[in-house]
């Protein structure tokens, strides 16, 4: 096996992560099948765009309401057992929707209720799921593990909707919910097979008043955490709304059909998978990488907006997909490595809130801009926002570096990835080349203090 391929799939050498990864592949694909089925079922029942939009919003509302408390729960209890519980909770809406669809008793109100229930379970599930990889693979491999998780998510964006479309056409929409319910069994089986003795131990958060708010205060006083989160908030708000702009681009700009929209979406998804695989070869995350990825994100988005003909838009979309995953995986890895293990669940809850919550908030604005000024302008606004986020982060990193070193520094001089002791070595993982131990850091981790 070549060194590059070995680095790309390094985390899969850890038995626990290999089991978890297999469960993720099935579970996340099932999630996309359910998303497509719920939206299409609402279209069939109401034919109302507002109803479809409300269905999407209700998936994210619980995250905004309960996400921080979900992160606190992830810090207080065993994440593996918590995730087993959330998988069971996530099965319930799928089973209810399957049963009512088959019996013809499903209603829009029931869909709203089940989507909200699913979102509530996800508000607990997401922080624990985001914080678990470092306990499975250790800090020296977490960048690779996050990248491989991104591969699963991006590949599922292609596989899940395709399976959903096939099921709807051949056997009916109810079977989409059946498959979704069964997909959680794969994740439960994977979690049950994890060996606790091979996992790094994370300290548990104590029970005291104001513990949930501590995550916000912790991030606010840590520039290496709040700068990447602020970048994600801006980019998520205006730049990640491709599900709004690309359909309009396909229909209005290129005067195409659903096939055109599928082409644009899958082109970007292919770039995202490639970007995740490339990101998996990295061992460290620096401010320079985050600023550079955001800069490329904005640049390729502007190029895609300016493409004069459809074929010339495809290459920028591939590159845009690569840059978007490099950026989002970089932020995720930065937060996981740079946080006190006792705070990891709460900090990753903030990441989920910012990453998943900012996009639906910005969707109406981006949609209005694209409808009023055209899809090209809607796409270009996202590009400008990404460039602005990159410029602001570069300035902030310089300020931090100047404060630490006493003189101005280049973007990337301020350390972002600072592993905190607490995630011990992972049994069965084996050594990682190039991961030099650093005093005060977790075994095998690397502290990056320059670009």
Automatic annotation (TrEMBL):
Residues annotated as domain Major facilitator superfamily (MFS) profile: 1-400
Keywords: Cell membrane, Membrane, Transmembrane, Transmembrane helix, Transport
Alphabetized Pfam families for the sequence: MFS_3
Organism classification: unclassified sequences, metagenomes, ecological metagenomes
Keyword Cell membrane: yes
Full protein name: Unannotated protein
UniProt subcellular location: Cell membrane
Molecular functions (GO terms): transmembrane transporter activity
UniProt GO cellular component terms: plasma membrane
UniProt topology in membrane: Multi-pass membrane protein
Main location: membrane
Organism: freshwater metagenome
Transmembrane intervals: 21-43, 49-73, 94-117, 166-192, 225-246, 258-277, 289-309, 315-335, 347-371, 377-397
């Amino acid at each position: 096996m070549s060194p590059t391929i070995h680095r790309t799939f390094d985390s899969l050498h850890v038995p626990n992560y290999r089991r978890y990864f297999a469960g993720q592949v099935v579970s996340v694909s099932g999630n996309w099948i359910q998303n497509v089925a719920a939206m299409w079922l609402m279209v069939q029942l109401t034919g109302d765009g507002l109803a479809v939009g409300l269905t999407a919003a209700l998936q994210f509302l619980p995250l905004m309401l309960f996400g921080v408390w979900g992160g606190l729960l992830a810090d207080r209890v065993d994440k593996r057992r918590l995730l087993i519980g959330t998988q069971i909770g996530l099965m319930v809406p799928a089973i209810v929707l399957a049963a009512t669809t088959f019996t013809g008793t499903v209603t829009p109100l029931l869909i709203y209720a089940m989507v909200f229930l699913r979102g509530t379970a996800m508000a607990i599930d997401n922080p624990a799921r985001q914080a678990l990889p470092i306990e499975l693979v250790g800090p020296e491999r977490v960048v690779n593990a996050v990248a491989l998780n991104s591969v699963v998510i991006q590949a599922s964006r292609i596989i899940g909707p395709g399976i959903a479309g096939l099921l709807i056409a051949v056997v009916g929409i109810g079977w989409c919910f059946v498959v979704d319910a069964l997909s959680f069994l794969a994740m439960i089986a994977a979690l049950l097979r994890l060996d606790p003795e091979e996992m790094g131990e994370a300290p548990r958060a104590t029970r005291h008043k104001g513990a949930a708010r501590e995550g916000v205060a912790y991030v606010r006083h840590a520039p290496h955490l709040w700068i990447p989160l602020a970048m994600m908030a801006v980019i998520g708000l205006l730049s990640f709304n491709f599900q709004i702009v690309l359909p309009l681009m396909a229909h209005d700009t290129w005067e195409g059909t659903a096939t055109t929209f599928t082409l644009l979406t899958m082109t970007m998804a292919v770039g995202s998978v490639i970007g995740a695989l490339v990101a998996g070869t990295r061992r460290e995350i620096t401010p320079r990488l985050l600023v550079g990825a955001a800069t490329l994100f904005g640049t390729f988005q502007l190029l895609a907006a300016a493409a004069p003909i459809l074929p010339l838009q495809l290459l920028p979309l591939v590159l845009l997909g690569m840059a978007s995953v490099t950026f989002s995986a970089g932020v995720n890895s930065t937060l996981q490595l740079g946080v006190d293990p006792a705070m990891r669940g709460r900090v990753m809850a903030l990441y989920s809130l910012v990453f998943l919550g900012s996009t639906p908030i910005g969707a109406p604005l981006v949609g209005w801009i694209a409808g009023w000024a055209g899809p090209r302008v809607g796409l270009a606004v996202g590009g400008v926002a990404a460039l602005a986020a990159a410029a602001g982060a570069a300035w902030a990193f310089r300020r931090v570096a100047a404060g630490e070193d006493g003189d101005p520094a280049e973007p990337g001089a301020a350390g972002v990835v600072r592993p905190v002791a607490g995630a011990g070595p992972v049994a069965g993982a084996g050594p990682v080349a190039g991961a030099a131990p650093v005093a005060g850091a977790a075994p095998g981790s690397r502290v990056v203090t320059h670009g």
